[in-house]
Amino acid sequence: MSSVQKTFPLFGYELIRDYLLPSILGKHENDILYWAGKDLARKFPCTDIPLIISFFKDAGWGDLALEKEMKDGFVFRLTNDPELLKIKERNFRLEAGFIAEQIQNFKGFLTECFEEKKEHQEQVIFTVKMDLKEKIEQ
Q1: Is the pLDDT of residue 138 over 70?
Q2: 104 φ, ψ to 5°?
Q3: Does residue 3 have a pLDDT over 60?
Q4: The model's pTM
Q5: Torsion sign, CA atoms 77, 82, 86, 87
Q6: Distance of alpha carbon 103 from alpha carbon 22, whole angstroms
Q7: Whether residue 9 has pLDDT greater than 80
Q8: CB under 8 Å, gap of 24 or more: what pairs does 90-94 form?
């Protein structure tokens, strides 16, 4: 059985992500996209970091790399072709929410993720923090 990857026009994705969603969500865009990312993570669970990295690639979100692992969190770097990343026009709250929920689910602690756009380097840094005092019931 051969594996066929289905593709769709990038323009259609950009229309929805960069124009339609901001128009519909307005001033609440950042908060809603973060929670939408968390919801997406519950629908597409990843059981470890390599699967999160693979999901980013498969979803066309870019190349996610684990930069640092700490006792209470992680630091990831997202890169992509600058024309696809669109770092100046786009927020990355959807991706941050997705990462937070995935790690919360497999680590079992309340988790948040914050993104920082590094426009000159064309990359986004995601800092993940787990509250090791807040165990999540699975």
Answers
A1: no
A2: -60, -40
A3: no
A4: 0.91
A5: positive
A6: 27
A7: no
A8: 90/17, 90/18, 91/29, 91/30, 91/33, 91/115, 92/117, 92/124, 92/126, 93/29, 93/30, 93/31, 93/33, 93/34, 93/37, 94/33, 94/34, 94/36, 94/37, 94/40
